[in-house]
């Protein structure tokens, strides 16, 4: 039985895919950290990410408002904190999505129940209209002949 566990199969790529990868210069990433690396931006302005005239305008109305310089320093601090947290963990972690609170689920249930009731009432009112003989006056002559 140990021989069965030691057997592995490596699927060969078709020749046309190998040729395509050679022409393009494709190299496969081996480790997980290579997947985290940032993709290079292929913009025309590699040396300057944003020109000064394209940046948002900062308007200071009161003394407590942030100026442009303060906003830049705050953004740098936030970026460095996010990078430090990602590097400090060193592990890939997956978080479960948060469950909905009972209030939001009860709201959804009451809304769906109201919609169901409204649709049932609409169907019943439509069926009552069909049963009313006054609405179907063109069929009165045939009904009298049959009875």
Automatic annotation (TrEMBL):
Source superkingdom: Eukaryota
Compositionally biased tracts (Basic and acidic residues): 28-41, 52-66
Region entry Disordered, spans: 28-66, 89-147
Biased segments, Acidic residues type: 42-51
Domain DUF4604: 6-142
Alphabetized PANTHER family for the sequence: GEO02494P1 (PTHR31195:SF2)
Protein name per Swiss-Prot or TrEMBL: DUF4604 domain-containing protein
């Amino acid at each position: 039985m140990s021989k069965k566990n030691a057997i592995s199969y490596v699927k060969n790529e078709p020749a046309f895919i190998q040729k395509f990868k050679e022409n393009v210069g494709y190299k496969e990433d081996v480790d997980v950290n290579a997947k985290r690396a940032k993709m290079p931006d292929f913009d025309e302005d590699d040396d300057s990410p944003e020109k000064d005239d394209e940046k948002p305008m900062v308007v200071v109305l009161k003394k407590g408002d942030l100026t442009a310089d303060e906003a830049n320093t705050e953004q740098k601090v936030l970026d460095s904190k996010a990078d430090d947290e990602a590097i400090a963990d060193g592990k890939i972690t997956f978080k479960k999505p948060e469950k909905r609170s009972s209030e939001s689920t009860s709201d959804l249930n009451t809304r769906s129940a109201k919609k169901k009731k409204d649709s049932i009432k609409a169907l019943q009112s439509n069926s009552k209209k069909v049963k009313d003989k006054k609405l179907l006056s063109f069929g009165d002559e045939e009904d009298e002949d049959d009875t």
